[in-house]
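For the sake of transparency, this paper describes our internal protein records without simplification. The record that follows is passed on verbatim for readers who wish to inspect the format:
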Amino acid sequence: MNPKVEKAKITDVAQIHKLINYFAAKNKMLPRSLTDLYENLRDYFVIRENDKTVACAALHINWADLAEIKGLAVAEEMQQQDLGSVLVKACVQEGTAMGIQTIFCLTYEPEFFENHGFVQVEKKDLPHKVWGECQRCPKFPDCDEVGMIYAANP
């Protein structure tokens, strides 16, 4: 498969929602509401197969020098095909092209992100700008995700 990464469309939202919340129910990522997905749809990249959204990821701009990769999910039947890697690369490329200096993520899969040049950091060392969304999280303040950063434009 030669995956084609595209910006998400309104017609992808229901499938993105189902994909992300499937893994959230397995405690592998945080859930996303339909409201959150619609409000942040421009952040999302998708990979489709036969009109079905099989993978997604978002690059969310937090500040002039900071962005987050979030909502990375790949349908179970499509895993082991590097779709997650393709999406992370698309997010990093977009952030770099925009002049973002640091891209971060909060993840349960640190090894995956390490393979893409991210390094682990203490969550408390992430800029305070990232905590706005965290306050709405059901796991706040007991976050068990691993903080990671990528120096896009050092």
In short: The chain is about 30% helix and 30% strand. The CA atoms of residues 22 and 130 lie 25 Å apart. Residues 5-151 form a domain with the Aminopeptidase fold (CATH 3.40.630.30).
